[in-house]
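One-letter codes give the sequence; the integers encode the fold. A sample entry reads:
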Amino acid sequence: MADLMDQVQALLVSFSGELLLFGGAFLLQFFLFGNVLWPWRKHGKGKAGKTKEDGTKLNHSRLVEATTEAYEQGDHRTVLRKWGLLQRTGEVPAATLVQVVESMQRLRKDRSFILQEVKGLVLKSEASQNVDFMNELLMPMMKSLDAGLVNQLLSVFARVGVNPDSRTYEILMNLHFATRSFDEVRDLASKMRKEGLKPTQRSTLVLLKTALQEGTLRDALECYIQVPPDTLPKHVGTQLVETACRERNVAEVMPHLESGRIPLTVDSLNLLLNESLRIENSKLAKQALQLAGSQGLEKNGRTYSLLIRAAGGDTQEIRRILEELSSMDNVVFQAVLDACAKTGDVGLAETLAKRLNPAEAGQAPAFMSLIRFYAEAGEPARACDVYGGLMQKGADGQPHRPTIDARTKHCLLSAAQSCERQDLLDELVDAADASQGTVFPRFKDGKSGSIDGVLSMLEGPTKLPSTAWNIALDTCVEFGELEKAKHLAKRMKEAGVIDVVSYNTLLKAYVRHSLFDQACSLLMSMRQDEVHRPNAVTYHELISGLLKTNKEIHRTRAWELVSEMQADQVVPNKLLVANLLRSLRPKSYGAEVTRAMQLVDAVQHQVDEGLLCTVLEAGVRVGKVQVVQKKLKTFYGEGAEFPVKVTGAHSFGSLIKAYGFVKDVAGAWACWREMSMLRIQPTNITLGCMVEAVASNGDVDGAHELVQRLLEDPETKSQVNAVIYGSILKGFSRKKRMDRVWDAFNEMQVYGITPTLMSFNAILDGCVRNDEVDKIGGLLTTMQQYGFKPNLITYSTLIKGYCAAGDMQSAFEVFRDLRSGSEAPDEVVYNTLLDGCLQAGLADEGENLVETMMDQGLAPSVYTLSSLVKILAGAKRLDRAFKVCEHASSRFRFRLNAQLQTALLQACITCKAYDRGARFYLKTHKDRLSADKKICQSLIRGLVYTGKVELAADLLRAMLGISGASEAASQHRAAQDFDQALSVEVLKAMAEAKGYHSGQAMSLFQDLKAVKPDLELDYDLQLRMESRGTKISKPYR
């Protein structure tokens, strides 16, 4: 044993150095890592780390979803908070980063801040260090047109070795092309070539458009060939031909036209023909015509006019071209006349004259040109004949003097003098004198002597045309001399010179003197006159005059005249339609709104910017969402059937207001962007419409941010006022975000925007809505410091707040202050106080309120009386409830409707006065008023419970419509209101009632059985009815 121990000791001594080294290693491990078993812990910790990693991925996914949800809701501050958490994960999807960047921009973060945030992510996250991530990030930024931020982001990605690819260059080219930075587009194309990148189709299309904008044909053709034909807009080919003609290099595009690579359009054909005329190259014209013929291209008036010009003096060719024409416009006509003037071929002009139709609209210039040609070609008789033919075929079927320009008039006077046409000379001289005012000057001093001087000129020996008489008649009307105007009109009728213009002038005089009966009589006589039928001007004068009075009887008559106008097939003019639209009010009848919009459809080809605004404002005013939507689609935006060009700030305000009304916020923003692109300076009204449209549709933050951007812009800062901020205050109030309300109010003061009384009323309403009544006192003090006194809205809001808080004493104090002031309380104030009395159970105060209301001359509404009935019923004052209602109906002459009847019946149930309720129902039932079904059932059960069985049976019959109703009506009513359990309950009570005649129960049963054949009685009830002497012939279960 001793030897063994010695051997162990010797072995330990021999390994002492190694043992010391091993022990030292353990001690070092302990001090560095806290545990000598770290290598074994590492394996276990790896499992825990894996679990933590899985949890991290789950949290990352939730953060991305939460960020997207906040972004879609417009909560950009929450997006930034989520962004701070996402950065810690190290991985952010490109789509999420785009949302974060846009939120930063909407929160007015500067570019350096945004760049620093994105830079931090890109440098840290390997997942973002690829070109696909970069492109996905840059693509949405193209819409913001912020080229500076985009270039800086490219530099960030370049630091981590991410270089642009073809898709990146496509995005950049579109960005710079949108801002018309053509030099930047060319530089990008040059960089692509140096880097050996192939442009995408969209990039090539951008380069093509750039070349066309700069007029470089060779580059444009090179790009055009690279783009597939089906992806090219048709107008691009025409632009290529136009560029070729401008560069005098048509030969470059002709091979492509002949091959069909560039489609030939009629505009391209006209460009080629015009170029052939300019360079006098008939070969080019023939080549273009052959190409058009091979492709079956249809020519237009411009094409034929160019062909006629190309024919020169070849009258045979011109005649051939005329034969090819199916219709002729003024351009072709003038080209033929120019050829006639060069060749002196009167026969060709005669052929041309035969193709003219005086009744066809728009041909007056052609007739004037023909008259000048004949006069200058030595054919005065033909010139006079052409004018005479035009005189005989006026638009109204009567001799009509066309408007003649000075040159034509000079030629025609010479021709008439050469032909000794005294009739034409007299007419032309008279027309000249009338147009120059030499016969009847328009006196402006308004003196009676001046009018007499005008009238005396009618007494001369010369027979004057009707125009002169009409000028005299209009002078009398303008000076307010109605009697002289009537006397003159009588003379005109006797002289046979009266016409529609005369009648319209006299009608205008009646309207100005509010003599609408006489005006309507005059209109009636015109309708009966086959010669002088009323026209659009006639109806416009009378209808507009009636509408201006704002009297209901005149409004009704105006719409009757609209019906007469439509019956006469007279198309209204734009002014009349606009006046009818302006007359529409929120309470206008639906039929009036429909007819007004039908009139808009009748003149939809004439709708301009002003009428469009009137249409939209009328639709908003009457509250017709579908009407406004339809008119917006018809007259504005992409795909509009009759697009109207809008250029005024006021018009954009009307459009934005309309889009906000129909809940189309995207449409409102589209209008705002278009207005910005057109560089139209918005007015405060336009800004107010935009802010209201955005805020009223739920995006109050967006509206507030828009206001803040406007305040930062020196050009629009002065346009922001308290009315615009009122929309922000109301929006945040309705969102129950009073902190933002107070922030917005303080912001107004910081920017020096003086609040109005409306501003304070909006904040007061917010305090009431959001249970911050305690802040009302301080707000009222601030309001007084600004010099504002409370108005009716202020008092009403205060009363509403105090009633909601249960402080009726303060509410009545405010009510007394209101009554002592200059404004009288309205129905809203009384109803608010009555609601408070109902909640507080103040019967005396409630009854006094209604009495005060009626003493004020204000008729209580159904809601007012119903509230009072509930108050009095709660105080068991049923008699007073009936008396007040009867007194109000008698004094203000209205009948108790079903709602008020139901309230009184409910009061009877509350007071357990079932018999009174039943008698009241039976009385009102004769007046065909219908109460609530459940109320009647409660009354019947109450009557049964109190032993009033006979009254219960009568009420049941009345409720089912059995008594006094036809069989068909009874069956229909029973099908809706029949309650079998209630009917059996009444029959059971009748069978058990003492002293009740059994025949009456049987009679009720038969009545019920008639309207409800499947009515069944249980066996016990059958026995009880038989025991009281009621024999049921057929047993029922």
Observations:
- The chain has a mean pLDDT of 78.
- The longest helix spans residues 38-72.
